Hints:
By secondary structure, the chain is mainly alpha-helical. It has two helices and no strands. It has a single domain, classed as Helix Hairpins.
Amino acid sequence: MGMNYHYKFEKILDVKEREKDAALSTYQHALQAFEDTARELYALLKKKEDLEAYQAAKISTGLSVREIRHYQRFIADIEKSIHYYQQLVMKARNRMNWQQQKLQEKNIEVKKFEKIKDKDYSRFLEKLKLDEEKQTDEISTQTFFRHIRN
């Protein structure tokens, strides 16, 4: 009995799956960007900390005013970079969270259509079984009547 199953929303499911894959890719890029930016910020904070520790150690051994000014300028520059990277990290985190939300929405859509497909396929199998039983009944009935006639 060559009844092939066809899901009427197959094309929509394909589109939803492609959208989900695209959303996953976009989210992964956003996550990577967030991690890279956060790493840069961490490196700058560490650099500032090390520089301040170095300056404090040098002050105890005696620093010239010129050297103190030089370190202060250097630390001020690092602080500007830190502020800039804090903004970048915040934006990157927001973008990542937004993309994660989009990905979750796409996942839910795909699952909805997969559930409909599962129910639809179960109905198809049920109908197939009923059709086969009906056919078997008809064959038994025909066999029975042929048997009676002979």
